[in-house]
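TICKET #2291
ISSUE: user wants both folds in one file
ATTACHMENT 1:
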Amino acid sequence: MRMWQNRKAGTPNRARVVAARPGLATRSEVEAAVGRAQVIRRGRSARPQARTTSPHEVGTLLGYARGRECWASVEDSRIDVGPPRSGKGLHQIIGSIIDAPGAVVTTSTRPDNLAATLELRRAIGPVAVFDPQGLGRVEGIRWSPVRGCENPTTAIVRASGLAAGAGFAKGNVSDAAFWHGQTEMALRGLLHAAALDDSGIGQLYRWGLEPASAIEAVGILNRSNDAAEGWGDTLDGIVRMDGRTRDAIWAGVRSALSALADPAVRRSFDPPAGEGFDPASFIRERGTIYLLGTGVGASATSAFIAALLEDITESARQLAAHNPGGRLEPPLGLVLDEIANLCAVPSLPSLMADGGGTGISTHVVIQSLAQARERWGEQAAAAMWDAATLRLILGGSAQPRDLQDLAAVCGERDEEIRNWSRDPNGGRTTS
């Protein structure tokens, strides 16, 4: 009986046979959960100012089930899991980029998504490419990590993104939380000092090479009337720590800023006055920015990719706070393909949890749950998975733990199977 089922499922009617098995969603259940009418209803609260009856203004078409359309809402936090060549880009990512009604930030380790969507997104708003490695052969934007860091809050957010590139967040270092926190404090002091002194990215790089060079930043913080209270003393305390502790912290600082050793990359982060990338204007104009980096090459630039993402999302939150209902209109779309190969964005778990309510639509694409655990750590990866309101699992996974977890979520059902056999006398028995 089981063999017949498998042979039957291998015919052209496979989809219909599989769908007919007990335990899978019926046509009416598909429509009620992710159908066209449902996404339009959700859109009335997600985009109350849009006043549209088109599902394309409030969602993205995922595909079809039981002959019915399946839609993701712009307020969904979404995780797609699929190994390489499972169709993530062609069938999901490109559609998410094209369909987004507002500004889009998308990451990738290859320029394929850029090539497929560039002209279509250009018809909606300005297009920019952040490509320190030159993968896309398109002139990229220039963004200053120091921009706005005269504001202590901005310096804290920026340092959080840069510190993620030091690698402590993975949890594979003893007392990782302590070293990460100390690295972040040192970076925020350097950023704050660079902004107050109107220094360029080259000065920030020199300060980050060794603690002795950072004494100049301490002096700027202590002399400036606009410096955050106590920040000069904090940085001075780190610089004057005992040798081993100080050197370990500064190893994290150097790692976070290591991309600046390449003069070409350093130029990407040192725009002329008044010409740097402005996240708030980008969001208002419904722009699209492609963040590119290879899995290997991004190890150097990952801190800056994370910092730029933090800069954009923080700007989005600030804009949303001044809008009716506290929502960004139209929503900002984060389509984060191969994000685990690029950088560990510190705010990503919280964006998954509450971004939809402020008009930030987050779409994370990873190769496996094991990859997420490796990048963000066990607890943060679990928090992201739990916070996702939509989980799309593509075929081809070979991770036993992941498959067992998915099977547990799907639940179990009892199926009656009848077996027929014949005894030596020719009689037939059924069990």
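ATTACHMENT 2:
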Amino acid sequence: MKKLFLLLAITFTLTCCDKDEADLLSEGIETRVSGRITDFNNSPISNVKLKVMEYKSKSRYLSLYGNFPDFIQEIEVSETNTNGEYDFTFKTSGKGNVYQIEIQPSPISEQKYSNCCHSEPITTIGNPFIFNNNQLIKLYPCDVTINLNNVSDFPFQVYHETTRNPTNNSNDIISNNQVIRRIYISKYYPQKLYINRIKSNGIKQVATYIFPASNVETLTVQSIIINETDFKNI
């Protein structure tokens, strides 16, 4: 009887271990991925970087019921062409079993799109997979000349909804000298530029400036004057 219980216990343990092990896909399975990236008006967006990411998961489903997969590697990178299209093939490595295609952020130095970054599970490994997206916001540069009328309580932070700022605070305004800041705007809508500051007494304030829709796809320019009376408590 003891031997029977021992045998059952060993069998149960091995079964549990098998369930806990990830069921990896074989190495070298080819999958063709293609699609088109546009804005909501179907205007194509070029130079959108896409990556295929490989994960190892026990269930083959990302973050399902607390199942967080292990990231293995980035296995393919591609970009959209002038028509917003991409088409490439990747191979499984034998180290993973879950694959995602991810839209990467546009570089801070030349921002061409916003509303990023979407990812989509690739559900047809070994067969063609199509992923289209029309949710990005196509951006165009706008240089804003900022004049300051004897204001105080620096630094000021420049914020614009679709513009990514550097992480090193180099975009901050630190004196009353005139500065030019580049933002990246949609041509379809009026744009709001926010100047934020914290006064010496700890009160947070913001000044808001509105520009009309540009309706063009080239560099535009704007100019503002920051006065003390522009700031409102928040």
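RESOLUTION: both attachments delivered.
EXTRA DETAIL ON ATTACHMENT 2: DSSP finds one helix and 16 strands in the chain.
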